[in-house]
Amino acid sequence: MPTTKIPVDLILNNMSKQQKTTKKRIKKGRELLTGQLETELATTPYEIVYQEDRVRLKHYKPENPTSKTPLLVVYALINRETMLDLQPERSVVETLLEKGLEVYMIDWGYPTRKDQYQTIGDHVNGYMDNIVDFLIAKTGVPKINLMGICMGGTFSVIYSALHPEKIKNLVTTVTPTNFDTDKGLLHIWLKNTAADLLGNTYGNMPGDLMNLGFLLLNPARLMIDKYVGFFNNMDDKVFVENFIRMEKWIFDSPDVPAATFKQFINDCYKHNLLIQNKMEVDGTRVDLKQITMPLLNFYGKYDHLVPPEACELLTGAVGATDTNDICFKTGHIGIYVSSKCQEGFAPKIVEWLKERD
Amino acid sequence: MTKQQSNTDLHEDLVSSWMNMATSFWDNAAKVQDLGVVPPENHGSEDARKTKNNNAYKNFETWQTTCKNLTSFLKLMTRPENQESVTKGMGSLYEMLLQMSGDSVEHTMEFQEQFLNTLTAIGQRTKAYNFEDIDQNMFESFRTLYEQEFQKYLHIPQLGLPRFYQERIATLVDKFNLFHFHLSELGYLFSVPIEKTNRVMQDKMEGMLNKGDFFDDTSKGYDEWVKILEGHYMVLLKSEKYTTVLKKTIDSMADYRNARDEVLCHVLKLLPIPTNREMDEVYKELHTVKKQLKALSKEIAQLTGK
Quick check: A209 contacting B, CB < 8 Å? Predict the structure, then answer.
């Protein structure tokens, strides 16, 4: 019988070293966590220029404006728009301002029980249209540039189809428009979700419940490995600060108004009406062929929430001829916060808009 | 004498003896003056009659009337002309009880058998990246036992003035139970990838040790473990089994919440606090009015050119 030799001495030696390193790390980590940490989000200065109910409009002013058409950014109702300004040097807002764009961003606020009857129409034809009218009146331009993120991108697509005369250029980022795909777990689960029952039961769809659903998309990484990573780097101040910022952002999840949640799940995830030009908003059919303004469409190759299959049909479905698809080799959030996307994302938007200003 | 006749006679004897004994007991119980409770007119002053003793005597009178009624009822049943129907009735009751306990024992045995099978299976090897052979029989058996043997008692039609309250409480208990069955099943499904990953890692380590090799750094072992765990979860989360259990859990959670809110709404009705349902009606009206007002304001602004 062959005998084998296990390097026990090497293993024990490594374990001993690791134990010492861990002890040091915990000591430093404790000092760090009990000391002063810079974990503020959204530190770029802004001014609130418009408010309607819970919805506010943030205005970010560039030092040297170079574009005459303002850019309105529409974030999703899930999580908050602070993700675009998560931390200095990794802030989409900061880059847009540096390049001279006049940026306005919708803050949807925190819906309460009284907002449960607000539909997609109330958001698109109500709040968004009022804000666009306000911007057109304020800046004196006939049309504005519109940029949508995730569900906010879907809202922007609907808005541009219903009010094309007010939009000069449309930018969509990680925006689902084709929901008939089984590539993402979210698409599989939401097709089986009793949206009406949940909406009627909860009033508004609780943000925490949705966050739990997102965590369950990859429990090994999001519920175990992430925190093991934090433990392994708890002596690194920059890492800890960035980690806490991200945690603050991820778990800052407003509830979604029940009527909007129900309509989004039923019309989009279950029946995929938008891409087929069959979806109705406030009684009007949304015809994507009405989107004739230039369209720039970004998505992530490894996005597990909104897979490429959910995004890439849009440019072929609209009426515009000036369209462009850009796929980054990253995930849903990486497109905005990863260091490798910082050069290719926001500067590309500015360049593309300026060419069409 | 046939066996059936013999059984019938035995029932009749037993029932008659029990009836006589019960009649005698309740007859004696009705004569409780000996226990010291006497009518108020025979006991002390007018004031005392109006207060403490009066109440005691009222209770005594109720007790005595009940006992007398029961005695009369039992005497009526022991008359020779009623003997036959009483015996038949008792026979049916006996059969019903036997049937009920038989069913319950059968289901309990079935559940225990499944449970034992599951316990036996714990020590057996599980296949990596395969979630089709998950032993969920235990949950199914337990749920079936509940649905067939217990749930029906919560669905018994309630009678009388408080019947709506009783129905709501029974529904709440039922929905709570169903939600927890599904939640337990989901929790179990969620624990399976960890079990499978640990087995894969054990095999892997065994293979490495046989070759005289091992992780020289614990973080390498962890990286391998989390990678396999992620793979197992990806397979599980996409499976139809998981999707079905997840849907049932979410739906039953919503049902439980609705049942709970229903009970709370009725409790709140007793207090000067508006319920969610009442507030929702106000919110809906407010939403409609605001929408109309905004549309009108826009139209006026367009007409006046402002």
Answer: no
